[in-house]
Design brief:
Elements (H helix, E strand, L loop, with lengths): L2 H13 L2 E2 L4 E2 L5 E2 L2 E2 L7 H16 L7 E4 L3 H15 L6 E4 L14 H8 E3 L7 E5 L2 E2 L3 H13 L3 E10 L10 H9 L2 E7 H15 L3 E4 L2 E3 L1 H18 L2 H11 L11 E7 L4 H11 L8 E3 L1 H6 L2 H9 L6 E8 L6 H12 L3 E4 L5 H13 L3 E5 L17 H13 L4 E3 L5 H13 L5 E4 L9 H8 L3 E5 L1 H4 L4 H9 L3
Parallel strand pairs: 5-6, 5-8, 8-10, 9-10, 10-11, 14-15, 14-21, 15-16, 16-17, 17-18, 18-19, 19-20, 20-21
Antiparallel strand pairs: 1-4, 2-3, 6-7, 12-13
Helix pairs in contact: 2-3, 7-8, 8-9, 8-14, 13-14, 14-15, 16-17
Length: about 500
């Protein structure tokens, strides 16, 4: 790593501006395990050092410019201290910022340019044709940056060649595209950062390998080796889900692929335990647990809501160590924030894996996957369902492409386990192709047999080597559940 980057990370840690323990709400509404707070540079020494790092980054970019513009709020002070440090380096450059008004700039469109300047500008007013470097602390989704450009456009005609930030979080936007790359394409403005997410993880990894000791964060706050290792792991999981392709590849190369093998066998039958009482569930597990080819047990809301989910798990574990998979019918259809609560409940209950059908959109899907990974849960993601009139092509509400995107987003996060409709082999083939195109070798879990007309053997042929058939009534409604389990596992 370049010396100036290591020096800046060390500076961030010593001042407490880089926080890698806890949960931090971002402007994008994402809940992140790491955060950089440039606002912690609040005295002369730290402010001066920060300005020097920014000044070097901008001057080394090779871009010609006339003014520095601090994007409200944090960019204001950054521009001020950077202008001071640039002057020390021999370049005296003016700087300015804009106010946050109750009125939007659109409502002030009838004012003259001079009146707009007076209403909006703090600092040196720019002149038409001048080249402006925009400044802010970090780049997540870029909402504040796009808004800043709109404000500047309302004030005059300027060149906007550069946006300078301290840290590139290397995250995608809601649409899954690299937020900075998309910003550069849309605006024509180049983005330079002092650091990016991979620099920070690399530094922390190297520190961990070399020191093996107490890690001082800031002031009286300390982090030991175990805590630091866990923090790095959480950052890695976050970036697997929200990161750009570049950082995802970096995480995979340096920290390995996501390990999410739920069932030891490559093929098995999983009883769907859609029974009404805990006694029926206990009987089902007791009679089938020793059957070769039974891979685990899927429990749903009947048991999860009718009883304590923890009690359900404890009941299963009296007979077997095979995984208990919780299917909330269908988890992941709420707002992103509730993913943390869902993951907490499932972790406390002791379930081994959860099934998500994230029909509420890409941000909910990413949030729920991240929070489940963060709690150490295995994740299974579905997109297409077994019943008629689900996808638009079948007369339903969910677009076919939207359902496939659920699989793509999960695959890009490193998820390897997926639910597919066992009674629709053509859909299984389509989903398999989509996932493999993302570089993932999928493990499929398929319901839709017996009552819904699917064939385990036909689905298994299409799904490939790793396939787990989910069978409900065909086992728990049988007169002899053990014999029924043996019969269904023989079709694998």
């Amino acid at each position: 790593m370049e010396e100036y980057k290591a020096k800046f990370i060390d500076f961030l840690l010593k001042t407490g501006a880089l926080k890698v323990e806890g949960d931090f709400s971002l402007k994008s509404k994402r809940l992140s395990p790491w955060f950089v707070n440039i606002g912690d540079f609040n005295d002369g020494e730290t402010s001066g050092a920060l300005g020097e790092f920014y000044a070097d980054s901008i001057l080394n970019s090779g871009v010609d410019f006339d003014l520095l513009y601090g994007i409200p709020d944090k960019g204001r002070e950054i521009a001020a201290v950077t202008a001071v440090e640039m002057n020390r380096k021999g370049k005296n450059v003016p700087r300015f910022s804009t106010r946050k008004e109750a009125k939007t700039y659109g409502e002030s469109s009838n004012l003259s340019q001079a009146e707009k300047m007076k209403a909006w500008i703090i600092g040196r007013a720019p002149k038409n044709g001048q080249s402006i470097v925009q400044m802010d602390d970090v780049f997540t989704a870029g909402d504040a940056k796009y808004q800043a450009i709109e404000i500047l456009k309302s004030l005059g005609e300027y060149k906007l060649p550069l946006l300078s930030i301290a840290v590139d979080r290397m995250e995608v936007g809601i649409d899954g595209k690299g937020a900075i790359e998309e910003y550069e394409q849309k605006t024509g403005t180049k983005v330079v950062s002092i650091l990016n997410a991979s620099d920070i993880i690399s530094y922390l990894d190297e520190f961990l390998q070399k020191s093996k000791c107490i890690f001082k964060m800031s002031g009286e706050v300390f982090m030991n080796e175990t805590q630091l290792r866990e923090s790095i792991k959480r950052m890695g999981n976050y970036l697997r889900v929200y990161g750009t392709e570049k950082i995802r590849k970096y995480i995979e190369q340096n920290r390995g692929k996501l390990e999410q093998k739920i069932i030891d066998a490559d093929r098995s039958v999983i009883p769907a335990c859609d029974v009404e009482t805990i006694e029926e569930f206990e009987k089902l597990v007791g009679e089938t647990a020793e059957v070769k080819g039974i891979g685990g047990y899927k429990v749903g809301f009947e048991l999860g809501l009718g009883y304590s989910l923890k009690k359900v798990v404890e009941t299963a574990k009296k007979y077997t160590n095979k995984p208990v998979i919780y299917d909330h019918q269908k988890a992941g259809t709420d707002i992103p924030d509730t993913g943390k609560n869902f993951a907490n409940v499932c972790k406390k209950a002791g379930v081994d894996a959860v099934i998500l059908f994230p029909q509420a959109g890409p941000e909910t899907e990413r949030a729920w996957i991240y929070h489940c990974l963060d709690k150490g849960l295995n994740v299974i993601v579905g997109g297409r369902m077994t019943h008629p009139a689900y996808a638009v092509s079948e007369g339903g509400f969910i677009t076919d492409e939207g359902a496939l995107e659920m699989y793509r987003i999960a695959a890009r996060a490193g998820i390897t386990n997926f639910v597919v409709p066992g009674n629709k082999p053509e859909v299984i083939k389509q989903v398999k192709d989509i996932i493999e195109a993302e570089g993932i070798s999928p493990i499929f879990y398929a319901p839709g047999f017996i009552a819904q007309g699917g064939s385990i053997s036909d689905a298994a042929k299409v799904a490939g080597d790793r396939f787990h058939g989910i069978v409900g009534r065909g086992i728990y409604k049988a007169a002899n559940m053990k014999e029924a389990a043996i019969e269904h596992t023989s079709k694998l």
